[in-house]
Structure formats: structure tokens, C-alpha cells
Amino acid sequence: MTLNAHKILTIILFAFFLNGCSPKFFSGMEYAGTKKNISKQELFPVFKTEDPVRMFNMQIDYKETNLTGLLIVKQEGGKTQRAIFTTLFGMTVFDFEFNETDFKVNRIMEQMDKKAVLNLLKKDLKTLFLYNIPSHFDAKVYHGKKATIGYKIKTTDGKGYFLTNAAEKQLQKVEMPGCITLLNLNYQNYTNGFPEQIVMHHPKIRLRMQLDRIEQ
Q1: Bridge-partner residues for 89, per DSSP?
Q2: Domain count of the fold of the chain
Q3: Taking the model in full, what pTM does it have?
Q4: Within 13 A of 65's CA, how many CA atoms are on the CB side?
Q5: What CATH number is given to the structural domain containing 38?
Q6: φ, ψ at 53 (rounded to 5°)
Q7: Is 2 inside a domain boundary?
Q8: What tens digit of pLDDT does each residue of 55-90 get?
Q9: What are the pLDDT digits (tens) for 185-210?
Q10: HEC profile for 71-121?
């Protein structure tokens, strides 16, 4: 191999290494190093254990299939949440109880009663409620414009990327990488400290779930 070829290979490998260290999720942000013993509250969790019952219009789009209905999220005591999704005709699609360590299926529609589907929904809900993150954690931190802070965290479901707005005290985006189960989560249009819309998207399998907050 010639000297020039060695130089080109070195540049390519170096660029690949840098890209691996700084995920596209943090594009345009400056790496600020590793921060230890971060409180989960610095991520500004959307759902809290003291929350009242919350209701959402929910839509699930999977390829050419669409399902709409009502999602009710309520605390079942302690740190356990219960999520019940019913169609507009009153059919229960799923009824789950879950916390940091447990996930109980009370009911699920027969067509969705598959291990892969349940594992996917379990991961999505744990991410939505930040149940896959301990109360304190270490993270690689990135700083962006307008008080934007990014965190690369080792969660119980693998690495995760989190984007917050420290000035507004808002969790804005989450990404959970995966070869097939890549999850993008967006919290949009905050009103009184809670997003009006939450979108969970698995682009590689064409699955999208949207929650629109219902005022109570």
C-alpha cells in the first residue's frame, strides 16, 4: 500500500471513529465530557408518580393499518402506572401495569399477543416514562444552542440519547437505537409543563404511535 493510500485510509478511519463517538442525534452540538451522578430530574420527566389520571387520543399506524382510540394513564399506587387503550367502539386493545422492574399484561388484543409485539411495547412504555433509567446515572453530555443539553446514557434497554431544553425545563426528544427496533420519541407543544402531543416512531418497521393530550 502506498503512503498516500495509508493517509487516505487513516483519514477515513478517523472520520468513522469521530462519527461513532458523536451520534447524529447530537449533530451541531459540542461534546462537554462525561458527567457523573446526574439526577433523573435533570431530564425533566413528563410523567410523574403524583400525576392525576391523564387521557389521550391515540392513533397507531402500522404500514397500511390504522387504529384509533382513547389511552388512559393512571397511577396504581407507588411508582406503578397503568395504561389502558380502547378503540372508539369500546374494544380494549391493551391494558398494562408497569414500573421500573415489572411489566404486567392484564389484557391485550389477540392479534397483538405476540412476544415481539409485547417486548416492543414494553420498551416503548419504559422509555416514555423513563423507567429504563435509574434515579442517578452517568452520561456523556453535549451542549447546543438555546440551553439545549443532550445526554448519552446507558439504560436498562441499551444506550439511549436524550435531548432537553434546560431553560424551559422540557424533555424534547429521545432516541433508542436498534437495528430493527430504532425508536424516535418526540414531545411537542408544551402547555403548562406538559406536551400537547407525543409521537413514538419506529421508522425501520413503519410503526408510528401518536398521543394527543385531552384537556380535563
Answers
A1: none
A2: 1
A3: 0.86
A4: 8
A5: 2.50.20
A6: -65, 135
A7: no
A8: 999 999 988 889 999 999 998 877 789 999 999 889
A9: 999 999 988 999 999 999 999 999 99
A10: EEEEECCCCCEEEEEEECCCCEEEEEEECCCCEEEEEECHHHCCHHHHHHH
